[in-house]
Structures are given as structure tokens and as C-alpha cells.
Amino acid sequence: MVRALVLAVLVTAAACASGAPKPTPTPRATASASASPAATADDASIYASIGPNDMAPQLKNITPRVYVPNSESNTVSVIDPSTYQVVDTFDVGKLPQHIAPSWDFKHLYVDNDLGNSLTELDPATGQKVRTIPVEDPYNLYFTPDGTKAIVVAERFRRLDFYDPNTWQKIGSYTVLHSGPNHLDFTRDGRYFLISCEFSGYVVKVDAQTMKGVEALYVGGSPQDVRISPDGKVFYVANQDLNGVSVVDINTMKQVKFIPTGAGTHGFVVSRDGQSLYVTNRKAGTISVIDFATREISATWIIGGSPDMGGVTADGRELWLSGRYNGDVYVIDTFTGRVKHRILVGKSPHGVCVFPQPGRYSLGHTGNYR
Question: Total domain count for the chain?
Fold first, then answer.
């Protein structure tokens, strides 16, 4: 089975490279139309509210911008997505890693990892507002009910829970495995699954008690995490194993492994909620996984070092950082071809495309529901 899947990926990649037609997912008018009117909350797609027509009213007058944290330059580049030009660059704290929209979309937060701070941005102006002291913010998430901010302090193997309104710490959990970095939540928001990059583990954490529940060894170097639309499994990018682990969080077992490409790293959900864009950072490719079949539907050869990012509100473009190339890639989601490469600072990482549709943000670079 694995051999056949790998062969299929190679055939698809060859077709992409030769310019032959590619099976690409087509962004639909709205994701919410995919759920039948009689569907219950448990039947509906978790991503039913991220379609192009689902933009929150308070965001409709926000000027679209793309924010790029340049980790080794200690700056943020701001790009106008209508002209594909860098329109601003400003200093932030040391080693900015990701830029996370707040749960209520009112703020953007630059995670200054070694700077031990969050730089708050105003999305209405695109400018800095204030600096919030927090320890080692490699990544930043918000619980689905909006009551907690979770700072992933990777160096210290710790998850720090804050009140997102006052930024007072309300709890802390020391993870038993090294390198905690990316996570996503169950449908009901009670639990989340976090990857541990340096130990090969994923850990199930209770968001209410702020304590770990169970761990699973998947091997390699687990990276980004995203839940399936039906809420049944989690996808975990594995950089060292060059593929994606599919994990059942209820049984804490790996139910499938999907080979993708060298350096599997980041995830972005398509605008219609039916596909998962997977960045293969060392291979310079994007694998498109069909959520319904848990199989690869296309492989896009783009070159460079694709890392983290997001899709535009209409779903027509996928924006990704080129981690080792100092640029940002703009990819046509209909054809899988690179439309633009935009030079930014050194080591661009967690690109934030804002605004985007959804009821609320779970943080990271824009994980919406």
C-alpha cells in the first residue's frame, strides 16, 4: 500500500513538472453549503464556517495584508496582497516565529521567542500597539471558547495558560517530552493534541484542567497539527519521517501514515475545508491531501523551502514563507503554480494572511473555525 502510494505521488509530481493538467481542488463558493440543512453539529464539518461568505462583519472593512515574521532579522514585513509589494517593515523582539490572530480578531500577536514578548499589532492599521512580556513564546493559541491563551514555551517544555484580556498567567503545565510546538483542538474544545518536535511524541492535553492526559510515540520530528473536518482524527506533519501521521485522539493510536515529501512541516486547510495543503520544506513541494479519502490528490513542485502560511479569503491563493530562501511564495490553488516570489527578511517563518473568514481564531498563523 505504501509503495503504491509513493508511486502515485511520483507520477503526479512528474505530471506537475511537465506542465500536464493536475488534479487540483477547486475553491467553492462557500464551505458552509457543504453541510446539509438537517445536519447536526456533530455531522457538520468543523470547517463549515470558513468559506468566503463567512467573513465576520467587523472584518469586512479591514484592509487585507500579509504579515511575515523574519526570524533572523527580528523584523516583520508587511505585504499588500493586491500589488504583491512589501509596503512596510518594522522591528520587533528577538526571533519572531509566528504571527497569531487573537480569538476575537481584534489583535495580531508576533511571537518573539527569544525576546520573551508578544508584539501586539492593530490589524486596522497594520502597526505596532504595545509589547506584552511573556516567557519563550514559540507559538500562541487560543481555546475555542476564547477564555484562555496558550503560550507554547518550547525551550522550557512548558505550556503557559493566560487570561487573553489581562495577560495574567492562570496556569502552567510542564510537558514530559521535549520540543512542544504545534497543536489543535478537538471538536468540543475539551482536549488538544500537541506535537513534541525533539522527542517524537504527541501529547493529549485537557484544556480545562491544563494537564496532560496521554502521550503517543510517532517517531521522527512531529511538527504542525490539524484536525479532520469530521473531528475523528488529527493530522501530524512529521519532518524527519517525510510524511503525515494520522492519529485517533480517543484511542491515542496512529491509524495511518501518508508519505508526502522530504521535510514535511506545515499545514493549511483549503478554503472549502475539503483539502489539507502540506508543505514539504526540504523537497520544495506541496502535497494536497483529500480529507475524505486521506490520500494525496496532487503534488505541486514549487522549489525553495515552503514552511508556514495561509490562504486568501477567496481561497484562490496560498501564501507560504520560504524559510531558507528569504522569500514568500504566492501559489495559485487552481493550478498549483507559483505566481509570485516576494523577497523579505532572513528566515521568514509563520506568515499570517489577514483577514480570513471564520467565527473565531485558534491562533497559530490563522487556524479558524
Answer: 1
Is residue 218 classed as helix, strand or coil in its secondary structure? coil
Bridge partners, 108 (sequence order): 101, 121
Tens-place pLDDT, residues 160-191: 999 999 999 999 999 999 999 999 999 999 99
pLDDT tens-digit map of 263-282: 999 999 999 999 999 999 99
What's the whole-number average pLDDT of the chain? 91
CATH, residue 135: 2.130.10.10
Residue 22 lies in a domain: no
52: helix, strand or coil: helix
Task: Quote the distance between the C-alpha of residue 225 and its chain's center.
Answer: 8
Q: Residue 88's domain spans which residues?
A: 2-6+69-354
In degrees, rounded to 5, the angle at the alpha carbon of residue 83 between the alpha carbons of residues 325 and 313 is: 85
Query: Per the domain annotation, does 268 fall within a domain?
Result: yes
Taking residue 33's Cβ as centre, other Cβ atoms within 10 Å add up to 12
Task: For residue 61, tell me if it sits in a domain.
Answer: no
| Cis, peptide link before residue 355, omega less than 30° from 0 | yes
In a domain, 36, yes or no: no
Mean pLDDT of 92-106: 98
The pLDDT of 139-161, averaged and rounded, is 98
